[in-house]
Amino acid sequence: MTVATGIPMTATPVLHLHNITKRFGPLVANDAISLELRRGEVVALLGENGAGKTTLMNILFGHYVADEGTVEAFGKALPPGDPRAALEAGVGMVHQHFTLADNMTVLENIALGTQSSWSPRFDRATALARIRTLAADFGLAVEPDQTVANLTVGERQRVEILKALYRDARVLILDEPTAVLTPIETEALFATLKKLVASGLSVIFISHKLNEVLAISDRVLVLRAGRLSGERETKGTTRQELAALMIGQEIAPPAIAETAPGPILLECEAVCAPPASGPVGLDGVSLTLRGGEIVGLAGVSGNGQTTLAALLSGIHRPRSGRFRIAGEAVEAWSPAIALQAGVARIPEDRHAVGTIGDMSVTENVIAERYRSPRFSRHGFLDWAAARGFAEELIRDYDVKCPSPEARVRLLSGGNMQKLILGRALDPDPKIILANQPTRGLDVGAIAYVHRRLLEARARGAAVLLISEDLDEILTLSDHVCVMFKGRLSPPSARGERSVRDLAELMAGHGMEAA
Amino acid sequence: MIEALEILFTASFWVAAIRIASPLIFATMGELICERAGVLNLGIEGIMVAGAFTGWFTVYAGGDLWTGIAVAAATGAAFGLLHGTLTVPLGLSQHVVGIGITLLATSLTYFTYRLALPEVTSPPKIDSFQPLEIPLLSDIPLVGPALFAQTPFTYLAFATVAVVGWVLYRTPLGLAVRAVGENPAAVEAQGIGVTATRIGAVMAGSALMAVGGAFLTMSAFNSFFFEMVNGRGWICIALVVFGSWRPGKALLGAVLFAAFDAYQVRLQQVTGGVIPYQLFLMLPYVLSILALILVARRATYPKALMIPYQKGER
Hints:
The complex is a heterodimer of chains A (514) and B (314).
Chain A: E1 13-24, E2 27-38, E3 42-46, H1 53-61, E4 68-73, E5 76-77, H2 83-88, E6 91-94, H3 106-111, H4 124-138, H5 153-166, E7 171-175, H6 183-198, E8 202-207, H7 210-216, E9 219-224, E10 227-233, H8 239-247, E11 264-273, E12 282-290, E13 293-298, H9 305-313, E14 320-325, E15 328-329, H10 335-340, E16 343-346, H11 350-354, H12 361-365, E17 376-377, E18 380-381, H13 383-396, H14 413-425, E19 431-435, H15 443-458, E20 462-466, H16 470-476, E21 479-484, E22 487-488, E23 492-493, H17 499-506
Parallel strand pairs in A: 3-8, 3-9, 6-7, 7-8, 13-20, 13-21, 16-19, 19-20
Antiparallel strand pairs in A: 1-2, 1-4, 4-5, 9-10, 11-12, 11-14, 14-15, 17-18, 21-22, 21-23
Helix pairs in contact in A: 14-15
Chain B: H1 2-6, H2 11-36, H3 44-60, H4 65-87, H5 94-116, H6 143-148, H7 152-170, H8 172-182, H9 184-189, H10 194-220, H11 232-242, H12 247-271, H13 277-296
């Protein structure tokens, strides 16, 4: 028996999805998709956001019921819509949004549901011993008695993996596992996955990041718009080929036009500030933003970027140091004043801060400017103008949404970000704060955001790009700074520092001299 | 002044405090179980009324006292099933459903009372639970009479706290109940039914509330009359917050509140006509609010409290 691409079946499949079709109303999320997973291999499921990867895995795991098709695990059909059956068959899933109870301990989260509900006593000692063994075997360091709320994102993911292993999972499904991890945590995850596969587990790795798929998988299945668009052995394929399969066309890297540096639009000198959230504030930060330039701010998250972004947004105030906008010292400072001074904000968390999920697109796009004469008169909102503006942004920024009345929550991440981008860039801001503008977006949406930021640069705006994605920083930035423990390295011009140099700075080496 | 303090050293004060605390302990444990599973049960006041009546009526109609407690619990569980069905799988507003259950249970009880006893003018009496002195232990000064010369119904209240604490923290079932109140998606992902767990918790909790109501008619007093629950249910909701959703601390809160209540009654007698008695009636509530402000600010509430869970929804 051979599959369509001519790859011979060398081992028995542990998992077999056959012709899965799933519709949500008129949308066909999965269109006759078949997948086979063999023992000890890593299969990557590659595709843009909305390509149907997560839907497929939710069907496999029993969260959704397929309209057509069957799921077999170890040769036996799984009843549809029953997570318990999937668990018992040895299928474990690590969801993109973790399913952990924050106020409970690691041990409680892992052992939940593994002992008979009617047993009179919870057997803690056995659970503890087993977690310790698994953690040691697979390099999943985590303290069983810690409360989950106190764990880092990387540690929470380890708990999720332990949850699956604790139930003797033979198949592990990881949904976008690296979306929330730092590069170092990603490496640790890959090391764990290699150990798991060596011990005979099979892994399905869902991702839209080509580098990672190439680094970890044995085989790649590419989904596009609900259909299987190709299947390749990882060894015999290239980044370009996979990208083409994923989006249906090649995406050229953005062209960076030469610009002459403009006037200084924002200047920080030896600014100190208490932490806006989390433990790290600003410790003598000096930063200059000029018109027509993008300054990239690299660094592992949690090193003061949030505080700096809050400061520029007007949410936070400096404790000491000089802070000037367009040459003038900033006296009073608030989000409203920041907006008036021409600072546009693309916030880090588009769900929690960037938008109000249960309000409409129209209401969201005027959220920053509802008091301007354009949208209100004598204290009454001009809904016609607001709606017109929303329609304009939907058209100009290619936002896919049913109507301006749609609740923002229903938009995909990429479309939400385009909406925020449109809202921020429409008034031609002088200073743009782009905090993690492409986090969690797919290749197409990322290219779109990059293009818009470069357009703003060409128009003479000063852009501060805060990102954990070094590739992004290096591609777009005219100058790069690294942030570490609230301190900022001096800027280096494009091409001046190598990736290795930046990684060293991100780890704190050489920052003392900075 | 001295007299006011002397109250604290009389056995009768502590006996009364523990007696007043008993119904609060049952109902607080019931509310605590519901909220730990993520469901705010504002039906508590009405369920206590219903339990007070059915428990008492069972005995009045010739049943055993313990059968009365069982009937009260079953009444509570039935209202719990109604509450759970409306709030868990249907995901209706827990506030609206809770208030609705309170109104329904209260009115239905009064209606049934009138139907069952159309002729009576003064509330009929039953042979209620009598104090059971535990040898030796009840001879300890102060503590003895307070804790070991109460009715068996009070002993049951304290046993309930121990059982609830054990089940919540030491059994797989309790783990599932707590987890479903923290993150139902986590429970679902581990193969446990969210709906069944929540409805079960609401039924168990409501049963305890009804038993708390039955204490009033079967141990504290020996007859049923209207308005006898008198806001105790609402106090229990505050006590759950006061206890930071922990059985032991909630028990402490219930005893503390009851002690304030017992104290103000005695203080009225000491200070006589000097201070208006309404001020004393107010005392336990004022002190409760103060205690809540001090204690509850740091409390970590169940993260999924009042958030309905719909399977497969994004």
